[in-house]
Amino acid sequence: MVLRRLNTGSPVTQLRHEMDWLVQDFFGRGSRPVAPTTAGFPALNVWEDGDSLFAEAELPGVKSEDLDISVMAGDLTIQGRRSTMAGEGVAFHRQERGAGQFNRVIRLPFEVDAPRVEASLRDGVLLVKLPKAESAKPKKIAIRAAE
Predict the structure, then answer these.
(1) pLDDT tens, 95-131?
(2) Domain ranges of the chain
(3) What pTM does this model have?
(4) Where does 44-85+95-134 sit in CATH, by number?
(5) CA torsion 133→135→137→142, rounded to 10°?
(6) What are phi and psi of 6, to 5 degrees?
(7) How many CA atoms, within 13 angstroms, populate the side-chain half-sphere of residue 22?
């Protein structure tokens, strides 16, 4: 049985929705692997507390020796590899956790003191502390009285 939706948008939008449904029906909804090399992996939270910027990344199943973190030219780069957990001869019924190389680059909002950058990996969560460079910190300007 084929169900058709009402045409509530432009013909191009309707065609796109129909093609999406066709592809999903052919491959099966949710059965395709999600590659960790997409722009959204690893998922990140970035915040600052005044003196430092913090980047927190979700990296379940990734070991610290499989990570490479660098700061260069105003960018934070997190590179690594997540290995597959399954052995040979395994037939997946669903594979949503990707495996393989990943690379995530984040533009930093200010200059950081690269030699003081710290990183820790605990319970699958990477925390990178990026202290602000002195040139990026606000300076208090003394006001002199006019004579």
Answers:
(1) 777 788 999 999 999 999 999 999 999 999 999 999 9
(2) 44-85+95-134
(3) 0.65
(4) 2.60.40.790
(5) 150
(6) -70, 145
(7) 6
